[in-house]
Amino acid sequence: MLQLLNLVKKFGSFTAVNDINLIIRPGDFFGFIGQNGAGKTTTIKMITGLFSPTSGKVLINGSDISKDPIKAKLNIGYIPDQPFIYEKLTGREFLYFSGGLYSIAKNELKDQITRIIDSLRIGDWVDKRTEEYSQGMKQRIIIASALLHNPKLLVVDEPMIGLDPQTALSVKELLAEKASSGTAIFMSTHSLHVAEELCTRFGIIKDGSMIFEGTRDELETIKGFGHKNLESLFLELTR
Amino acid sequence: MKDLLLVLRYKIILFMKTNTPLTFSSVIKSAGISVIYTAFAVGFFLFTKSTIRYLLEVTAIGSFLLHRFIMVILFMFFVSINIGNIVVSYSTLFKSGETAWFFTKPMSFSKVFLIKFLDNFFYSSTTLLLIVSAALLGYGVYFNLAWYFYPLALFVIILPFMFSAGSLGAILLLIILRLAGRFGLKKVIASLGIIYASWIIGFYYVSSPIELVTRVFTYFNHVSLNRYFGFLESPLIKFLPNCWVADSLYWISRGQFHSAVPLIIVNFFFSAFLFSIAMLLAKKWYYKTWLTSLELNSDSKTKAVSNSGLLSFQNDSFLNSLNEVMIKREFHLFFREPGQWAHLGVMLFLMGIFITGISGIKVFLVENYYNDYLKTIIYLVVSLFSIFMVAALSLRFVFPLISLEGETVWKIRSSPLDHKPFLLKRLLVYLTLIFILGQLITFFANLQFPGPISMIGQVNSAFIIISIVSLNFGMGGYFSNYKERNPIRIASSQGASITFLFILLYLVFLIALLFVPVYNFFRSSHMYINVPLYGLLISTLVLFVTTIIISASFIRIGLHSFRRDI
User: Fold this and answer.
1) Distance, in angstroms, between A48 CA and closest chain B CA?
2) How much is the pLDDT for B19?
3) What is the CATH number of domain A1-75+153-239?
4) Using the beta-carbon criterion (under 8 Å), do B416 and A99 form an inter-chain contact?
5) How do residues A25-46 score in pLDDT, each as one tens digit?
6) What is the pTM of this model?
7) How is chain A split into domains, by residue range?
8) Which residues of chain B make contact with A49, given a CB cutoff of 8 A?
9) What confidence score (pLDDT) does residue A236 get?
10) Closest Cα in chain B, distance from residue A73 (Å)
11) DSSP per residue over A49-110, as a string?
12) Is B411 near chain A, with CB under 8 Å?
């Protein structure tokens, strides 16, 4: 579903992402972990078409995001780390707007929005302008907008920021359900507990390079060598 | 005082860091910008000098009328700074996150007001100051004035004049919000709007420039037109700051500095007086009005937005879904942002005044039928003012077009849509609106002139509008800043200033292109010989080619800018 081939991003002389190779298959829940400034968001921005790679390729369902961006992006649902949405639109209007960008038929879109409003419990304030929303409310609207077109790949950057415990739980359940139904998920997070709880595969990035990439089983094996949990391993690897 | 200096110091550091990042491309960019600014300043200096020379030596209107012409320009200058300050101050003094942050610090409200007011004033006035400095230089060199004229005119005459306009803007804003808390925002804005409009119309009525020119010209054969004809105009004019400044310059240019001194002192103290009033009101009202603005905001916000209505997202549409959501988004984002529609309203109002104001030109043209130079100048000035209106609209609404995607640009960029048609459609919406408005202004402006030149003017105007809108689109993209949410600040940023300079350069090009054919046209029609239209048609052809080049280049720059990393 997602292939990163020798992916490099340089800003002047600074290399933010250095030769990353990765394959994510349908149903994979990939946890992308790294310190601040390690290159996580830069990688995500290249996957979603917000940055163009200096070299290398990003293939989404076989389509190169640089060469065939429209086809590639049809398969992506993107949840950024900062919940920026149009402040003068209501949550519902933003969802209709997002659905329109993916050319979803109006009737289908109406049903889909009703379903998502229920599952994310946003019905009480979805008809108010988003300038009134808290960060968590905005985050929920963004999550809803990313799921409207049933993407094959969900790219998630720090999904739990600003969410209250109940919503965090429902988001985690929603993501797990999406992965089990075959959606590939690429999730960047600082929350090692969340990663450990949800992800089936892990990647650790340091100074732009992938220093660990493996499955839950491989992680368990490594953890056996004196590491109690992912946090301990992460701290050891990124020291 | 210590905290003010601290804030000032960090503002300067911030400015330096923002404007001098030491990378190769940014150094090249800054050097390019400096070259453009310098070239423009030199161009404006030469333009001012040659215009004064032309008016005094060729058309021989005399020093008094020249300074009355300057007085009218200063009035427009005052109004635009004043209105601009009211609109921008609302964002910076009342809606800015930085203001709220300062309020959490142990700092008095009047100091916060002072910081934001000065920040606002100098941020939006940099380009104006550059223009004024270049114009003063041209003025001083023409009249061969001593070196001390320049610092004196800039710091003691012009800067206080601009500061008066800014302070008055802040005062009006505080009064609007204070009264809005009691009577409602809409009523207060409508009432003050009417008062303000009456004041502007009153000025043109009282000063009546065309009548004054006619009166002064009755003395043509009797006395020098350089003498002071103040007795021919309404005494009310003498109470206006633009008159003080124009008269100060008049007396200085005549070498009678002692006559200018009282006017300079009045202008300076008037500015200090308005600033003190602004500070006094801020001390009493700033925090209260800030709270009022929050209340007014929350009143309009807490109501749930109706999902019915003509442009509701839930309604079916005959358009394809992408076009449908784009149009609806554009409409709602524009009309739910008071800064956008209010500013459009003000600009349309000023256009209305302009159109009303030029109705007297026909009489003037008839009375001066023998003066082809003067007719040419009037035609060009009227045309330039029409273009200037279009330029102001474009700068305000097209330049920020790409930046206004804002931090939500991630949604568009990560969606499966082709960015080129998306941006072109957005541009087309604004181009169509500005095109219609521009054509209307040109129509009314040209109504006073003979048929052939009026028709050609209409066609020229179409090309000029397309060029200016494209220029703003491209430059707006090149200097796009997705972090700035305030469209007015985007439209007064450094990039916008450079765009404005380009527009002025374009205006100079238009004068050079049109002057001879227009003069030949008026000369021929006056002498009852065959009117040679080919000169005008060739200039239209040149305009057509220029429009293609400018539009293609700048639209490409705009589209290309959207592909940059964000």
Assistant:
1) 5
2) 54
3) 3.40.50.300
4) no
5) 999 999 998 888 889 999 999 9
6) 0.78
7) 1-75+153-239, 84-150
8) 413-414
9) 73
10) 5
11) TSS--SEEEEEETTEETTTSHHHHHTTEEEE-SS----TTSBHHHHHHHHHHHTT--HHHHH
12) yes
Q: Is A185 left (phi over 0), alpha (psi -120 to 50) or beta?
A: beta
Which of B326, B408, B414 lies nearest to residue A48, judging by beta carbons?
Answer: B414
- Residue from the list A76, A101, A129 with its beta carbon closest to the beta carbon of B305: A129
A-chain CB neighbours of B417 within 8 Å are: 70, 101
* Sign of the dihedral defined by the CA atoms of residues B539, B541, B545, B547, in that order: positive
Strand partners for A185: A29, A154
Q: Taking CB atoms and an 8 Å limit, are A90 and B304 in contact across chains?
A: yes
Tell me how far apart the alpha carbons of residues B34 and B32 are, in angstroms, rounded to a whole number.
5
Instruction: Quickly list DSSP for B154-222.
Output: IIIIIHHHHHHHHHHHHHHHHHHHHHHHHH-HHHHHHHHHHHHHHHHHHHHHHH-HHHHHHHHHTTTTT
3-state secondary structure of A158: coil
Q: Would you place residue B369 in the very low, low, confident or very high pLDDT band (cuts 50, 70, 90)? A: low
- Chain A contact for B563 (CB, 8 A cutoff): yes
The reply to whether residue A84 touches residue B407, judged by beta carbons under 8 angstroms, is yes
Contact B565 A52 (CB under 8 A): yes
Q: What is the pLDDT of residue B468?
A: 96
Q: Where are the domains of chain B?
A: 25-298, 317-566
Asked if A150 contacts B357 with a C-beta cutoff of 8 angstroms, the reply is no
pLDDT tens digits, B271-287 = 999 999 999 999 999 99
Count of CB pairs separated by less than 8 Å, A with B: 108
Q: Give the residue, B558 or B522, on which the prediction is more confident.
A: B558
Contacts of B304 in chain A (CB under 8 A): 90, 127-128
ipTM of the complex: 0.84
Cβ of residue A76 closer than 8 Å to a chain B Cβ: yes
Which of B325, B326, B565 is the closest to A51 by Cβ? B565
More confident residue, B352 or B277: B277
State both tokens at B330: 């554009």
Q: Does B211 touch chain A (CB under 8 A)?
A: no
Tell me the DSSP string of B30-84: HHHHHHHHHHHHHHHHHHHHHHHHIIIIIS--HHHHHHHHHHHHHHHHHHHHHHH
CB contact under 8 A, B408 and A84: yes
What pLDDT score does A30 carry?
Answer: 93
What sign does the CA torsion over B138, B144, B149, B151 have? Answer: positive
Distance CA B275, CA B280 (A): 9
Query: In the predicted model, what is the mean pLDDT of residues A121-150?
Result: 88
User: For position A154, what pLDDT does the model report?
Assistant: 93
Helix (H, G, I), strand (E, B) or coil at B389: helix
